[in-house]
Amino acid sequence: DLLTRLAQTLGGAGGEDAAARLRARYRVVLVDEFQDTDPVQWRIMETAFGTGEVTLVLIGDPKQAIYAFRGADVYAYIEAARTAGAQHTLRTNWRSDQPLLDAYDALFGTAKLGHEGIVYREVSAAPGNRRARLSDAPDPAALRVRVVDRDAPQIGTTRQGYARTGPAREHVARDVAADVVSLLRSGARIEGGGRVRPGHIAVLVKTNRNAARIRDALEEVAVPAVINGAGSVFGTDAAREWLRLLEAIERPAYPPRARSAALTAFLGWTTEAVAAADDDAWERVHRRLHHWARVLRAKGVASLAEAITLEEGLPGRVLALADGERRLTDLRHVAELLHAAAASEQMGATALTAWLRERVLEAARENGDEERSRRLESDAEAVQVLTVHRSKGLEFPVVYYPDLWEPSPTPRRDRPAPVVFHDAEGRRTIDVGLEGPQWGGHVERATDEQRGEDLRLAYVALTRARHQAVLWWAGSFDSRNSALTRLLFSRDDAGNVAASARALPSDAEATARFRALEGLAPGCVSVSGAQVHGLDRWEGTAAAPAELSASSFERSLDWWWRRTSYSDITAGTYEARVASEPEEPVVEDEDRLFDPAIGAPPAAGDLHDVPALLDTMPVGAEVGTLVHRVFEATDFAAADLTSELARHVAAAQARRRVELGDEESVVAGLRAAIETPLGPAVGGIRLRDVTRADRLDELDFELPLVGGDTPAGPALTMTALAGVLARHAGPGDPLAGYAERLTDPGLRTGVRGYLTGSIDLALRIDGGRFAVVDYKTNWLAPPGEPLSAWHHRPAALTAEMWHSHYGLQAILYVVALHRYLRWRLPDYSADRHIAGVLYLFVRGMTGPETPVVDGIPSGVFSWQPTPALVEALSDVLDRGAPA
Prior knowledge:
By secondary structure, this protein is α/β, with parallel strands linked by helices. The chain has four domains: 2-90, P-loop containing nucleotide triphosphate hydrolases (Rossmann fold, 3-Layer(aba) Sandwich), CATH 3.40.50; 100-230 and 385-529, P-loop containing nucleotide triphosphate hydrolases (Rossmann fold); 233-362, PCRA, domain 4, CATH 1.10.486.10; 561-622 and 669-879, Lambda Exonuclease, Chain A (Alpha-Beta Complex). Helix content is 39%, strand content 14%. Strands 10-11-9-12-15-6-16 form a seven-stranded parallel β-sheet, sandwiched between helices. Helix 22 crosses helix 23. The two termini are 48 Å apart. Residues 122-393 form the UvrD-like helicase C-terminal domain.
């Protein structure tokens, strides 16, 4: 984990040096929402910036600490507050009207929200908010309380006289809908915002189930409402329909599954159509499922979704439904998640069906996965229904609170589960024993802390409102322990709020207590009964028809602009793909074209007598990809390098099996490559000498070409690159003559936009110089000839660099490294920091005894461009033409 590793680094042997480097970079460190941090995060901030050399500013409100379930720990905030050199409190509320703040002052008083150090404080409204900004509402009070009559026939009571929870929830949902309609019909206006519309209203709930209940009640009275991110999309009908479709695609000839799929939105059959369909109709369905199975198998989920959309007219059919926009959004969202899962895990129909089935089952348990949370399909003019946790940081003109009368779940002794609590010293503790003499006390502590967070949850919820807040109270058995009930009936004069109430007040007692708030904040609080006498539909105001016109495409296209890469630029020169570009699924660096003038061996020679160690390793893109993966994962400095390589070869093979021949020989050959000296450009070091701290593997880059989105000149041409290379490369430069090869008609003649790529390895040497390293597994010997050091001598490698246009790749990659270092190093210069470019043809690298020709080991192509050349190449990529 990044946090724990950073904390260990700062607290370890070299921790002071690491902290000093952080302090050197920043003069002021500001941490927002500090109440949502945890002890590890606070320890990091305190160790790195709490010494006084840097100004550390912590901004937070402990009254809004509501994320304990995510690991946030308000005790970290309290500890930090105790050690702060200075404290400042904001006394002005810039959100809410003063009447609403007065009502909250009456409700909360001096309550302590779960801890001695978390006290409600009175604040004043900003100058422009000193009076009510909501006018002409049916009930003008800033805080409205609606009490549910438990004796009402539609509610009913239990044997003990408590309101039945289920009917009370349904009743409150209907009352919310009725009250919203009343407000919308009233002509109420918001200062500066016009007449109250659905988009001005939010309903905050504690659970996703309540969100759905409220949404359904609002839709019943024709009030548009959307659930803002509440719930997993895998818990929707759309996910279940995708599951039924995938099950049918998995077995397209199985009649029960075909019938199930026919009833989904994808085929759109009704139950009557299913009952009346003859054999010919079902045969067409089976053919369609077979066709979709082929699409899924060959092209993936994205293509399947697109095929269904086009072939079945899916949007038109779904959008014709009352909730069509929401359903179509969910269908597309599930399709995206399926596509991502299938692509990353290489899943076929059966595995994908099982994956989705598991996600649907998981969705029964509420979770906060942002990727899976339902997307808001339209929020312009709809009531927002969302959970309190999601509302944090948001604000709304009018807010309804239908379930503040219900407490959050707490640990139960009869259903043992690990509990989290703080001990007497304030340390966060987890009890996983589930039994023993201390178990009961730990459950009680955890319950008390949850009830304290409930108070803060109520505070966060209520402070989302700008002008008016409407809340409900119902006398169910559990409501005695709700934050609302305890604030009113279980708070002592010192502001302490008991975690549990002894008894539930009657409806009359609750009403009287709420009415007492009216006296504390005259004109700011109103109390009424929650009675629903019938639901009227809201008609709304018809929007004027928009004037439609046909769209015309008038701008001219920049045909030179593109997101390009080395592979894209060289695609026309040969069929095989070269190097490890982000868009390539495999690394194809096996150039099978052979030039006899380059590779023909002499009659005799010492180099010819040195065999390659990887001569039995097969060729091909998949082998190249595997070698890249193994090198990326391997710690070159590992004590047992052979075991390290063997482990990563096995892991790569487990991911995707590749024919390697004798794997022990491959491991031995790769070890030899790692132990081969790399030549004078990098001081003769080996990969073996490079630690993890001095390497960046697969360094992705995306560079603007000729201005990027805003063209700054003519398109970049290969001729321009050739001119720079010819001008700045001296006679001893191995790429000096490569400029002529850049006129190859197969190369893309001009590009503008962005250049993307991935450098196999960025290497740091001598603590301050850097080199580009690229791995190649090319077979350089003619067919039928044993591979030897002769085929990897410098002249042969230079010829291969020219022939396969690796020279262009080297040019682009050294510019990428130059730009990266220029961005990251404050005192950067190409002269001091660029060591050069190394292309490692690993088949020719045979270990410490690798033959050396003209100072360069066999298998190593070394290029050291001059600083002027590097700068000029960077400039031409930026401007499109030489300066």
